[in-house]
Amino acid sequence: ESQRLINHIVRHSAVLIEDSFFLNATTHHWVLLAHRNRHYVEAQPEILIAFDVHGNAVAANRRAKECVPGLDQLPRPVSELFDVRAERLLDVRPGRDMVSMKLVGSGSPLYARVRPPVIRAQRQAAPKHRNSAREAQPTLSGIDALERDRIVAALTDAKWHPDETAQTLGISRATLYRRIAKFGIVPPHRR
User: Fold this and answer.
1) Which among 116, 130, 180, 185 is placed 20 to 30 Å from 65, CA to CA?
2) CA-to-CA distance for 68 and 49, rounded, in angstroms?
3) 111 contacts 105 by C-beta, under 8 angstroms
4) CA distances (Å), origin 30, targets 26, 108, 163, 189
5) DSSP of 143-178
6) Taking phi first (over 0 means left), then psi (-120 to 50 degrees means alpha), and beta for anything else, what does residue 157 get?
7) pLDDT tens digit string along 116-154?
8) How far is the C-alpha of 87 from the C-alpha of 190, rounded, in Å?
9) Which residue spans of the chain are classified as CATH 1.10.10.60?
10) pTM of whole model > 0.85?
11) Which one, of 65, 57, 70, lies nearest residue 29 by Cα?
12) How many helices (H) and strands (E) are present in the chain, helices listed first?
């Protein structure tokens, strides 16, 4: 009986170590912390899936690969795994909102919280086609650069919701869209 108990403790400890390592290795990604029972999401989520700003699942822990079909081929869009769009997961308020979703294949329910990136990913050199697009844009004057930065900050604070951003800036939605086009502002989840 004692050996069975020790075996259980060792297995449980190994799972905790693996999950801790996973969370540490994915600090620059969004992480879905999920469980089949909504009461365990806070205390001990068993399913961990890392996804990027484009909504692609890029990594998963062992339990997630056992429970969620389709995680054997990564990266994969989150919308192919669950009945929820990636934008919904990116809009979740960290630590406050719980997301209920269903697996695409079986319809089994899952409950989750979303952890935003703890460490921002290092900016890599942009591909040539992006640089050429930026070079095609006219260089912004000091005032235009300040306005662009103000609009990007307001969009970020409003989680890229145009109505809320326009209200914060005190302009109409149409004016906001014109300025977004003028300054070439692209949401991070569409890059």
Assistant:
1) 116
2) 10
3) no
4) 8, 22, 25, 12
5) HHHHHHHHHHHHHHHTTT-HHHHHHHHTS-HHHHHH
6) alpha
7) 887 654 555 545 554 444 444 456 667 777 888 888 888
8) 10
9) 128-190
10) no
11) 57
12) 7, 6
Query: For domain 128-190, which CATH number applies: 2.60.40.1180, 3.40.50.280, 1.10.10.60, 3.40.190.100?
Result: 1.10.10.60
* pLDDT tens for the 191 residues of the chain, in order: 889 999 999 988 888 888 888 888 888 888 888 888 877 777 788 888 888 888 888 898 888 888 888 888 888 888 888 888 877 877 776 666 788 888 887 888 888 888 888 765 455 554 555 444 444 445 666 777 788 888 888 888 888 888 888 888 888 888 888 888 888 888 776 65
78-105 core/surface letters (b: 16 or more CB in 10 A; e: else): bbebbebebebbbebeeeeeebebebbe
